[in-house]
Structure formats: structure tokens, C-alpha cells
């Protein structure tokens, strides 16, 4: 099947299952105007995150990498009344945009955004655990480290999802030993081999590694 047909099929899926509302469309339009990288999930992937949350009746979620708040809105909207998303963001400009759009989306009561280096925040987040769900979509050189933290924070039966597991195909390039690619490779190996996880990679736009934490 030609690649352009795959794009059309993704648009078909988005239109049918994951249509964006005005807030999500506005946020996507605002990100380039505010010099925020357009590297967030798309609407189909946002819907996939919601699907995963619903499969485990998640009430408490952790997100590593808020960016402008796009994925956080999808996650928060899938949580029930009284549910909570703790999301971590290093960049104050990104964090301010995310808070603005959480308010516009009506999910502020479900979201707590913590600013600072994610590894520092994760070192202090233990009292908030256990989480039902963790979504990792942040700086790639620390991807494997974030997974190791998530394994300590997500309950048995919970789900860990890691974005960009294909790193735009770079994981297949034997000459690419850059820190981000090597960390993504290590993260994928951990997802595949850690006995605490039952995992796979879902072939999304750039690969979403998903693992269920096994009962201990």
C-alpha cells in the first residue's frame, strides 16, 4: 500500500475516533507561534492513550514530558471525576502554555504540573505512588532512566507507555550511537526483557512501546 494511503487512513481514523475539539486545534496552532516544538502525539495517538487508560480503569496517571499540554489533555479527559494526572516539565515556557490550555480544556482540577528536571521530580515522587499509568515522552537521552523510575512507581496491572520507540528509524542504523538513540535502544531492550513487564511496540507514527506491569 502506498505511503500516502496510510496518511489517508490515519486521517480517516482521526476523523472517526479522535476528532479534535476547538481547544486541541487551538493548542496545535499556537505551539509553532510560541516556538514550542511540534513533537507532541497526534490525535490518533491521544485516543490510543485514552484507550489504554480505560482498559485498566486508571484513576492516577503520571506523564513525563508535558510540552504544551496536548497529550496531557487527552490523558486527563480519560480520567474519572476525582482522577489525577501528575505531569512533569522542565521548560517554564512550555509549562505556562500547558497550564493555560489545561484551563481552557476544563481539566485543571485533574492536573498537577510540576516544573523542573524530571529525574529530580521522580526522585521525590514516591509518596504519590502507586500510579495506574505512566506516559513517557520527554528528552530521549534519559528515556531508559525514566522507564526504570516508572517500574518503581506503577502498580501491578498498570501500564507504562513510551513514545518514539522507533526514533524515526534511527534505532536500525548501526552507525548511530548518539545518546538519544542509544537510550531509546536501551529502553526498548528493557521493555522487551524485564521480567516485570509484558510488552510490545505498537506501530504508531514513531512507535509506542507499551508494557503491562506483572503481578509480583
Provide a descriptive summary of the structure in words:
By secondary structure, the protein is α/β, with parallel strands linked by helices. It has a single domain (3-213), classed as 3-Layer(aba) Sandwich (Rossmann fold). Helix content is 44%, strand content 20%. The chain has eight helices and seven strands. It has a seven-stranded mixed β-sheet, sandwiched between helices. β1, α4 and β2 (84-89) form a beta-alpha-beta unit. α3 (43-55) packs parallel to α4 and α7 (143-153) packs parallel to α8. The model has no long low-confidence stretch (mean pLDDT 95).
Which stretches of 5+ consecutive residues score pLDDT under 50? Answer: none
Shape: globular
So, CATH architecture? 3-Layer(aba) Sandwich
How many beta-strand segments?
A: 7
- Order the strands across the largest sheet as they lie in space: 3-2-1-4-5-7-6
How much strand?
A: 15-25%
Order of helix and strand elements from N to C terminus: HHHEHEHEHEHEHEE
- What share of residues is helical? 40-55%
Q: How many domains is the backbone divided into?
A: 1
Biggest sheet architecture? 7 strands, mixed
What's the short story on this structure?
The protein is an alpha/beta fold and 216 residues long.
Give the key terms:
alpha/beta, 216 residues, single chain, 7 strands, 8 helices, Rossmann fold
SSE map:
Elements: H1 3-17, H2 22-33, H3 43-55, E1 60-64, H4 70-78, E2 84-89, H5 92-105, E3 111-115, H6 118-123, E4 131-136, H7 143-153, E5 154-163, H8 179-193, E6 197-202, E7 208-213
Parallel strand pairs: 1-2, 1-4, 2-3, 4-5
Antiparallel strand pairs: 5-7, 6-7
Helix pairs in contact: 3-4, 7-8
Amino acid at each position: 500500500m502506498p505511503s500516502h494511503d496510510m496518511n489517508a487512513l490515519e486521517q480517516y481514523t482521526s476523523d472517526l475516533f479522535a476528532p479534535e475539539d476547538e481547544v486541541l486545534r487551538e493548542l496545535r496552532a499556537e505551539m509553532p507561534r510560541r516556538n514550542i516544538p511540534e513533537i507532541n502525539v497526534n490525535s490518533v495517538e491521544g485516543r490510543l492513550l485514552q484507550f489504554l487508560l480505560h482498559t485498566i480503569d486508571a484513576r492516577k496517571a503520571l506523564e513525563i514530558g508535558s510540552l504544551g499540554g496536548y497529550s496531557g489533555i487527552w490523558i486527563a479527559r480519560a480520567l474519572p471525576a476525582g482522577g489525577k494526572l501528575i505531569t512533569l516539565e522542565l521548560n517554564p515556557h512550555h509549562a505556562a502554555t500547558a497550564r493555560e490550555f489545561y484551563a481552557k480544556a476544563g481539566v485543571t482540577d485533574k492536573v498537577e504540573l510540576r516544573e523542573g528536571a524530571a529525574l529530580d521530580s521522580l526522585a521525590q515522587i514516591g509518596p504519590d505512588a502507586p500510579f495506574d499509568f505512566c506516559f513517557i515522552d520527554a528528552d530521549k537521552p534519559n528515556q531508559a532512566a525514566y522507564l526504570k523510575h516508572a517500574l518503581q512507581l506503577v502498580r501491578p496491572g498498570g501500564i507504562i507507555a513510551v513514545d518514539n520507540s522507533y526514533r524515526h528509524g534511527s534505532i536500525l542504523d548501526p552507525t548511530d550511537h548518539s545518546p538519544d538513540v542509544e537510550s531509546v535502544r536501551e529502553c526498548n531492550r528493557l521493555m522487551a526483557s524485564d521480567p516485570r513487564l509484558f510488552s510490545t511496540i505498537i506501530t504508531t507514527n514513531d512507535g509506542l512501546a507499551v508494557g503491562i506491569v506483572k503481578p509480583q
